[in-house]
Write a structure and sequence with these properties.
Blueprint: H1 33-44, E1 59-68, E2 74-81, E3 92-93, E4 96-98, H2 106-118, E5 129-132, E6 136-137, E7 143-150, E8 165-172, E9 195-203, E10 209-217, E11 229-230, H3 231-244, H4 262-272, H5 274-283, H6 289-296, H7 302-329
Parallel strand pairs: 1-7
Antiparallel strand pairs: 1-2, 1-4, 2-3, 2-8, 5-7, 6-7, 9-10, 10-11
Helix pairs in contact: 1-3, 4-5, 4-6
Length: about 325
Amino acid sequence: MSDKAAPKPLNLLEYHRPKRLRISDARIPPLSAESKRCLKNLSAYRPHRPKFPYPRERSAAVLVALFVGRLGDLYVLLNRRSATLRSYAGDTSLPGGKVDPEDRTIEDTARREAFEEIGLPINKFKVPLLCILEPFLSSNQLIVTPVVVLILDNTLRPILNAAEVASLFSHPLVSFLSSSPPFPTESELVEVAYHTSGEHTYPGPNGTTLTSRWHRFLTGREAGGIKPVFGLTAGILIRTASIAHAPRVPDFEVAPPGALSSEARIAWAVYSHPTFREAYEHEGLRVDWKTVARVAGARDTETAKKRDTSSRHRRVNESERRQTKLRTKL
């Protein structure tokens, strides 16, 4: 009896992209000139090819679902996570989750999760893909890839999964480039800025200490219990808005000087965190640790070589055990 094949690494560049958006047939308000430019920018965007494979069990996706508002501007759907969830309960987030075994691509993951959480149809014509962004690293060591889509039917109605989502609301996409609120400031929030940011440090390559910056945006719904857009979700939406509204840039500093790129942060986590090493070994994925170290900006130390050798030895030992077991049966 043959062993079960190891899962293939996710192909982040495999996706369904329509030849053109059929805006004229869509059930949406007329687009503003700025929104037309945004959609053109997003549709033309291509992510960089990953320099090494990502393990499926440490991969996740979120769906950045855009729709056209009454005045032709672009809005993004956000949800309030259920208070009963074990992690990030009550937080404001994008629909998404970890890769399932049946997901063929990262786009499949994002669409499936959005269908399960908010009932957004897995219809690639009513909800066509605009682009896939480079992945982000979450605080719980997941590689999260944003998948950006456009809802072409404003008559669609959400069906919330109460076990995961408490409520659904929207926010102007362009407001993630501004430190000024897109809504009238409520009296009880006068002392709270619409956009705030902070920094935290963490151990980096070669004994360095690195700094990253988090961002927080008010939703204007805080009085009703909705939390601000924060952390990873805020970072993803800043990036989406920056691509859409290029050449416009945020009126605040996104990252501190000397900060690692998202790609380098992922590489450093893969190189230094045992969770990733275990995932690679469990899935039987071959990893060129020298490449990972180079992308992370780490020195090519003996550690990388030992990891590569250790992985090969484990595969050889496993093969020998299987052959011995087979000979014993015969």
